[in-house]
Structures are given as structure tokens and as C-alpha cells.
Amino acid sequence: MFNPIKLSDNYYIAPQIFESDIQSIKDMGFDLVVNNRPEGESEDQPKGEELKKALEEVGLKYAENPIVLSSLSLSELDVQSSTCVNGDKVLAFCRTGTRSSVLWVLNNEGELNSFDNLVGHVQASGIDLARCMAVMEKLR
Question: Which residues contact 69 (CB under 8 A, 6 or more apart)?
């Protein structure tokens, strides 16, 4: 069953999506789906082009911003930030939802949102960011 995790009013994360999830994604009111998973990570992973075609056929926008945590840079943060604008309701996905969560934390840290509060919010939602902390600290 497709069950995205809400991190903010307009940003949700999910593990790998499949074509069978697309109607649920549309029915939940998402405008944009962002694929944060590099192509070919596993044999059971659907191809990005196939997902893009199926999402666009039902009127949804699709974007790719593949993330490898060990080489995460400000460039990928900027791409995610500039992609997730215009008040769109965004569903970001990767293999488990962790990378999409890391991007959300790093892009939302600021005067109103402390790093520790954002990390705590994500972890309370069921995503363990412990293995990502060293990478995240470098980009703060």
C-alpha cells in the first residue's frame, strides 16, 4: 500500500514508487514527483523514463535529482530546492525515503527551523538519519 510520509504541508517522502502507485499519487493531490534515486541501483527498480511517462500521462510533473549520499553536494541541494517551488505538493522518493529526507532537512534549515528540530521531525516520522549525519554536517 502506498503511504507517503508528510514532512511539511507541501513535501512528502516515500520509498521507491511503482507504476501501480501512480493513481494513488494523483488521488492524493500531488503535483510533482521528484526521483532522488540514481538509475540502476537494483534490478527491481523501475526505469525513470517509464515512471516519467506514466506520471505525465495522468497530468503530474516529474523531475529527477539522483542522489548518492557519499558524494552529496550543494549542487544537488540547489536542484532540489529550485525544483520544489511554486507551491506544488511534492512527493520525493528514493529507495527508502532517506535521501529525500536529507535534502529536505538541509534545504529547510534556517532561522525558523533548527537542524536538530528538522532531524528530530524526520526521525519521529520513521526515517533513521544516523548514517547520514556526517554528510549532512559537511553541507550545513
Answer: 98, 99, 102, 132, 135
